[in-house]
Each structure stands twice: as structure tokens, then as C-alpha cells.
Amino acid sequence: MLLHRKAEHVQIVLGKEDVQSSYRFWEDVQLVHNSLPEVDFDKIDTRVKLLGKELAFPLVITGMTGGYPGAAFINRNLARAAAEVGVAFGVGSERAAIVKGAFPESYSCAKDYSVPLKIANIGAPQIIPQADGGRPVGAEEARRAMELIGANVLAVHLNPLQERIQPEGDRNARGCLEQIGKLAKEFPILAKETGAGISKDVATRLKRVGVKAFDVSGRGGTSFAAVEYHRAVKQGAKRQIRLGKTFWDWGIPAPVSLLEVLPQKLPVIASGGVRSGLDAARALALGATAVGFAGGILKAASTSYGDTVEELRLFEEELKTAMFLTGAATVVDLKKVRKIVTGQTAMWLRGHEI
Ligand SMILES: Cc1cc2nc3c(=O)[nH]c(=O)nc-3n(C[C@H](O)[C@H](O)[C@H](O)COP(=O)(O)O)c2cc1C
């Protein structure tokens, strides 16, 4: 079932069905044009440090897949391309390999390439007891997940929305924070959402137990309620069809989540709906350390290595163009440029909490 599910997620995202949130929140962040940039385009410096590693430009290809035969092709293209252009790369949930021994080579292929920062991945529901009675993932399995790809960091993904919609989703979420805290004593942990965003309260609690960085994965890009809705339609699962539709647009808008998490003063990867280097510039201007990109690169990664590198190079050129047009010679300069927040994002930020 698990193998099937990871393959289905990729098929659905690559297929004709709509899996996007209805609103593009990054477009609400408008960078003010500078007609006298006083910058040499060829000298723009996009390098940043993330978790102690230098990236050629501030991009993380965030975890998507692994654990079934076709995933090796995707992960290999992504890892090789990330090494070529000098950005970070994460694999999808490694439960299939570390618990069931399923297709470990679909993850370990990442070891063949010198990616500057590699991110292993496990799910928060898997580190606590669930009704199926299976042994929760503990420190030993977490170590194996990291070793399998030669990871520098372990992402623990938070996905309560997905679990709720998923026909076979886990129902228990009690004790995740405590377990994340235990893992954080042994490994550098990146706390990562999967499309519904991290709030300031959650960020505060995660920092308190020792996580080292956040990937906000907010609303505005791939909607996992939508992905699970399409799986439910295929299975004729009436209850999940209803839930998927109702919660399609659930979550904290990605730019809002970024602003909620920044006060923790830990590295923040802004993600959820980042689809271009211009979106990246918007997120960096708001204060992100780097941006995360998943659904937007899946098609290239499932086509060829060449297409994947090309997409990453275009992304880099868009980012540099946005830096040029705002007069930012470095990523630090980009944080100081003028930005105007409009639309639903502005309404969220100005909305009255009651
Ligand atoms: C096909 C697919 C599979 C995914 N699987 C995982 C996963 O196993 N673990 C995880 O942490 N996130 C997973 N994600 C979530 C992404 O890493 C990312 O947080 C989310 O898709 C939002 O970014 P986007 O709008 O750029 O797609 C997956 C995303 C996609 C598109």
C-alpha cells in the first residue's frame, strides 16, 4: 500500500488533474522596480550558507519521493542536478526503505553525487505509536535514514492535513513534539510542513525542543488535500472525497508562515508554491534563508537529467534578474529592497485575530 501510495502521489502531480491551491500567495509580494540598479549582472553573488553548507544559490529541492522502482530515476536526476548547480536536495519519506527494506537504491542513489546539503526525511506520524501497532521509528531508524543517503540533516515532516484526508491516514498525533525533541538530541533536525504552513506557536514549540531549522511549506502550491482527493476519487472513497474538497485550501499562506517563523532566528526555508526564481526573490526579500521547490521541478526530474539542470539554471537566472531589477548585488542586499504586500496575503497580515 505504501509503495503504491508514493507512486500514485507522483503520478497525480504529473497528471492532468489540478493539485494546486487556488491562490498564488507569492504573487502578492511585489518587489519595487529600480531603474538605476547600479549593479553588474555578471557580478551578482547568489551564494548563501544554509546549515553550515554553502549553496551556489539559495534553493532546496525538497523531499518528494523514493521507495518504489520509478523513484530512483527521479531522485537520481534531482541529486545529480543539485550537485551540478550547487543547491540542496532532500529525498521523500524514507519509511518504505528503513522499515520495509523497499527499494533502498531509490534513495541511496543520492550518495553518488556531491550535493552540498543532503536532507533525509521521515514523517512525524511514524515516530509515535499508531493503531496498526507497528514499531515507531526511533533513533536507530533515523540514523539509518540519514546514512542511506549520506545526509547532513534529517527532515521530520509534519502532515496532519494529509493524514486526515488520506484513505489510510494515521489518526494519532499525540507525542510527536516530545519524540522530535528526543531525535533533536542526536541529529540536526529540520522541521518541515507539507503544504499547510507552520504557525508562530508551532515554531516556538519546535525551537524549544531543539530543532535546528524550519521549512515552512505553506499554502499556495501543491495541495496535499487535493492530491489525496484525486486518490480518493480513484478508490471511490466517498468520505475522503468530501474531506479533500472541503480542505483543499486549508493552511497558512506560505509568505505569512515565513513571517510567523522568522522571529525564532533559526534558518528558514520558504516553500509552498515557489514556482520561479522571482518567487524565490520575493521570499528572500521577506527574510528567508533559502527557498524550497518541489512540485515545480517534478516534471523535469521525471523527464531527464538535462531538463532538470535546465530548469534549475532558468530558476537561477530568474532570481538573478529579480536581484538586478531591484539593485541587489547579493542576497543580503535583497533583504533590504522595498516590497509591497497586496491581496489576500496583506489581508492575512492585517486581519484581526480574535
Ligand atoms: C509528489 C510529491 C510527494 C511529496 N512527498 C513528500 C514526502 O515524502 N516528504 C515530505 O516531507 N514532503 C513531501 N512532499 C511535499 C514537498 O516537499 C513540499 O513541501 C510541498 O509539495 C510544497 O511545495 P511545492 O508547492 O513546491 O510543491 C511531496 C510533494 C510532492 C509534490
**Unreliable stretches, pLDDT < 50, 5 or more residues?**
none
CATH architecture: Alpha-Beta Barrel
- The H/E string reads HEEEEHEHHEHEHHEHEHHHEHEHHHEH
Helix content: 40-55%
- Can you list the ligands bound to this structure? flavin mononucleotide
Structural class, from secondary structure content? Answer: alpha/beta
What is the molecular shape?
globular
Report strand order across the widest sheet: 4-5-6-7-8-9-10-11
Q: Give Rg in angstroms.
A: 19 Å
Number of domains: 1
Let me know the average pLDDT: 96
What profile does the largest beta sheet have? 8 strands, parallel, barrel
Structure description:
By secondary structure, the chain is of the alpha/beta class. The protein has one domain: Alpha-Beta Barrel (TIM Barrel). The protein is 44% helix and 12% strand. It contains 16 helices and twelve strands. It has helices spanning 2-14, 71-85, 95-100, 105-108, 139-149, 160-165, 176-186, 200-208, 224-235, 238-246, 254-261, 277-286, 295-303, 305-325, 331-334, 343-350, and strands at 29-31, 48-50, 53-55, 59-61, 88-90, 118-123, 153-157, 189-192, 213-215, 268-270, 290-293, 339-341. The strands form three sheets. An eight-stranded parallel barrel has the order 4-5-6-7-8-9-10-11, surrounded by seven helices. Strand 2 and strand 3 form a beta hairpin. The longest helix is centred in the last third of the chain and has 21 residues, at 305-325. The protein is globular. The model has no long low-confidence stretch (mean pLDDT 96). Bound molecules: flavin mononucleotide (FMN). Flavin mononucleotide binds next to helix 1, strand 7 and helix 13.
